[in-house]
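Open question from group meeting: does this chain pack into something compact, or does most of it stay loose? Before anyone orders reagents, we agreed to write out a predicted structure and look at it together. Recording both the input and the output here so the notebook holds the full record.
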Amino acid sequence: MTPLFDVMAMRPEDWPEVQRIYEEGIATKQATFETSAPSWSVWDKSHVPSCRLVARTPEGQLLGWAALSPISNRCVYAGVAEVSIYVAQSARGQGVGRRLMEALILASEASGFWTLTAGIFPENGPSVRLHLAQGFRLVGYRERVGQMDQGWRDVLLLERRSHRVGWSEAAREPRTSRVSWAVRRATIADAPAIVEYMRRLFSDKSLFLPVVADPFTMTVDDQEAFIARHQDRPNAVMLVADAPDGSIVGMWDAMGSPRRAVRHVVEFGMSVDERFRGQGLGSALLQAGMDWAKNTGLVTRIELEVYAENLPAIALYRKFGFVVEGRKRGAFRHQGRTMDGLLMAHLLDPTGYSTTLESFGSSRQ
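Structure tokens returned:
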């Protein structure tokens, strides 16, 4: 049962419980490089007084705490702070972290902070999901940045930019206006432009796309044949998005099997030109792809495979209703590193799909 609690300002007398919860987090070896909690005097000097919160039950028990630390003493970074959030072991998974984060964001904006940052171990999935759900985005990956127990650890860098603090009215307008992307079906005539797009895509070594590990060798003739295969099947499509200059800057393609038993299932791939990321193009492509699937009268399941560390893509897929159904351990090699793959899927009609499948016939495959 979810405990009753309120989020309120931390008091100096809360420190013993705050320290205990901090030590519980340290013991997991998934929360911080620290090996022990500091004294109150040390902690007090390094955290923002107006942004220290605790989750407290009516009986006075602390379930968690959250606080901010300035990232620099330079005035240019006066509005940037790092988040610390810890939940007692007995209260994890009960919404305490979410409530603390929501309150901390409000407190930070009231104190004039415009950017919140966080460094999280990739293995700390609950913390990553919490931050993404509260508007943080992945901005970097620090590889083998620190040692713990004689082993090197990576750290994900996430940040959240306030939409309330640090924006003039003139500065707000470009951010709130969205590009209206036109997504259309690819034609045979698009083959040269798609080949050029793919060459640009493969040159982006930072891209979390399994195919970029291989050299791009497809010719225009190959691409024409590939487009034609998508046109010949009722459970296949290739969608593209055009830039104002007519170049292709995004793709979404899906293909299913001709076998009757599984032709309702399609697997898709999606990519966006580096120059146009963060402008809603990925959402436009994914929405267009899902609209196509719904209109086929055939497709009821859409699935994909994604790097487990591609957090922005995973967050986008979750936003559109995709769920993780499995993990392929050590499935990919990316820039000399082995990474897991996640299997994600979305059922267009999760309540009636078994009935829908009956309409495909009962012949054995």
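Observations to bring back to the group:
Residues 169-178, 353-365 have pLDDT under 50 and may be disordered.
The first helix runs from residue 15 to 28.
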